[in-house]
Amino acid sequence: MKRFWRNVTIDAERVVRLDDRPVRTPGRTPLALPTAALADAVAAEWRAVGDTLDPREMPLTGLANAAIDRISPDTATFAAGLARYAESDLLCYRADEPAELVARQRAAWDPLLDWARGRYDVHFTIVTGIMHAAQPPATLKRLTDAVGVRDAFALAGLSPLVTTTGSLIGALALAERAFTPDQVWQASQIDEAWQAERWGIDADAERVTAAARADFYAGARFLAALAAGDEVTALARG
Question: Has this prediction a pTM greater than 0.85?
């Protein structure tokens, strides 16, 4: 689509407007954002559009569209889909050799699991190899509840964090700001970095990783904008 607007504004309902016309989701709902910070971030994407609109350059708009059109109609089902990642979280599946890789995984992954143990009072089954092992039912229940309490916009931001890393624990740690985006992303790439060091960089794999990284950091920025709004609301309430 060619750019047809000159000005981008945000109205009192935090709807992004193009020359006083509301931006609408693919489902034709006005694009109203829950926080001023997120509205500003989405509006910035529309201001940055050149001659032609490319949705791939507007990830926060895409996540907001998903929150409104795809997730809001049935947040419980969407949340349950994300929560299922707890059944086979990346952080619970470890290499048995070589010793250096084992040590790297332990150094990067154990702090995240320790955080989750303390935060949710859960226990984990740690597996050596790739054979599936069930996690304790209480652990799955508490992590499912931790996802299920989030609203559509929080779930939209959480989704790329989970799907690009394969770790619900890492995504929750980032969402609750116990770890930084860089810490969680780098932890999720331990195995890939090891393979690249040993065998060199594969161009196709690097493109896939770059796309995943972009999605991951978009989700992190999306959640940060939501959190900024929460902080302002909390201060206003005293």
Answer: yes
pLDDT at 222: 98
User: Is 41 strand, coil or helix?
Assistant: helix
CB count in 10 Å sphere of residue 118: 10
Q: Cα-flanking dihedrals φ and ψ of residue 24, to 5°?
A: -120, 150
Query: How remote is the C-alpha of 69 from its chain's centroid?
Result: 18
Strands (E), the chain: 8-10, 16-18, 21-22, 93-94, 127-128
Question: In whole angstroms, what is the distance from residue 33 CA to residue 145 CA?
Answer: 25
Q: Which residues contact 124 (CB under 8 A, 6 or more apart)?
A: 89, 91, 92, 113, 116, 117, 135, 136, 139
**163-211: per-residue pLDDT in tens?**
999 999 999 999 999 999 999 999 999 999 998 888 888 888 889 999 9
C-alpha R_g of the chain: 20
Bridging pattern class, strands 93-94 and 127-128 = parallel
Most distant CA pair in the chain, distance:
61
Name every residue whose Cβ is closer than 8 Å to that of residue 92 and which is 6 or more positions away in sequence.
113, 124, 125, 126, 127, 133, 135
Q: Are 194 and 136 in contact (CB under 8 A)?
A: no
Q: What are phi and psi of 144, to 5 degrees?
A: -60, -40
